[in-house]
Amino acid sequence: MQLRRDKGLCYFCDERFSHTHRCPNRRLMMLQLAEDDEESLDPDPPEDIPNSSTGEEIQHHLSMNAMKGNSGMGIIRFTGTIGNIEVQVLVDGGSSDTYLQPRIAQFLKVPIEPTPKFQVLVGNGQCLTVEGMVRQLHIQVQGHELIVPAYLLPVAGADLILGSSWLATLGPHIADYASLSLKFYQLGKFITLQGEKQASPQHSQLHQLRRMRNTNAIEQCFTIQLVEAVSPQDTLAELPDDIEPELALLLYSYRKVFHTPSGLPPPRDHHHEIHLKEGTKPVKVKPYRYPHSQKEEIEKM
Question: Which regions are flagged for Acidic residues bias (predicted)?
């Protein structure tokens, strides 16, 4: 290496070195690592570093069917009562806990206990926040009383959702999703709850709408009206075939004039007068406050 430096030669070829020198036979070297030698290069594996980006796993969840209220596999629907209010109850094994609509608890004024704020993962990937808890919720379903703890969660599928935590308290039970029935043993007797099929939309009477409004059971209200579609009239299609092109173009340019009026004419800045006869008095004359018999005598004065 020192000999090449004394002679002014390049380190990689036999040519003289300068600041503009480029080796004629430059090569690209590639180092390939064999799979067998991968473990030997790192004898001391690094310690496990906890991933701070992944937070605590959400343990509470609500299935998509329960969120939308659809009847599907693993869903049984009942009609029950809480107090004097009729509620829709869903038994859903895909949901982790029992959830109650907050408006039901607020209307019945049941005791609500504050709970630590936690998120519930719903079926569409979003998270809802629990607003409290009812420690003992009394529900009447088909002549049987159920006492369950329920979290307050603003879901839209049903009024009350009985999840897997409630099913676990039943012990051995039989859930037949084909016949929509739930059988379990409670308080020394065998209980059978027969599910209901999802009802189709029905007409509501005025008193039913008032009751739903008073119980805050209406989330949104819409009015649907049937409007007949009116096809626009083609002015050129109604014109005769032997009309002059200039006249047809003029009629098409002012086609809005021939449309059927849909309202009052627009206001004008200037109102034109109608001259009947020169010297004519106004047609509208205010009436006199005295009789017509005294009018002539007053005018003579």
Answer: 36-47
Q: State the CATH number of the domain containing residue 107.
A: 2.40.70.10
Cα(284)–Cα(298) distance, integer angstroms: 21
Q: How many domains does the chain have?
A: 1
- Judged by average pLDDT, the poorest of 31-40, 89-98, 153-162, 258-267 is 31-40
DSSP helix/strand/coil, 246: helix
Strands 99-100 and 119-121, bridge-based pairing: unpaired
Our CA angle for 86, 87, 89, nearest 5°, is: 145
Residue 72: which pLDDT band, with cuts at 50, 70 and 90? low
Closest residue by Cα to residue 155 from 213, 103, 200, 198 = 103
Q: What share of the chain is helix, strand, coil (3-state, %, to 5)?
A: 20, 20, 55
Helix or strand (DSSP H, E) at 209 = helix 206-214
Place of tokens 């047609």: 283
Is position 142 within any domain? yes
What pTM was estimated for this model as a whole?
0.48
**Among 118, 183, 191, residue whose Cα is nearest residue 151:** 118
Q: Does the residue 78 lie in any domain?
A: yes
| Nearest alpha-carbon partner for 160 in 82, 83, 219, 71 | 82
Token reading at 165: 């935590």
- Residue 99 φ/ψ, nearest 5 degrees: -125, 140
Reading the block at residue 100, the tokens are 């109650």
Alpha carbon distance 180, 195 (integer Å): 5
272 φ, ψ (degrees, to nearest 5):
-80, 140
Q: How far apart, in whole angstroms, are the C-alpha atoms of residue 121 and residue 129?
A: 9
The answer to the question of residue 261 being in a domain is: no
* Residue indicated by tokens 């626009």: 232
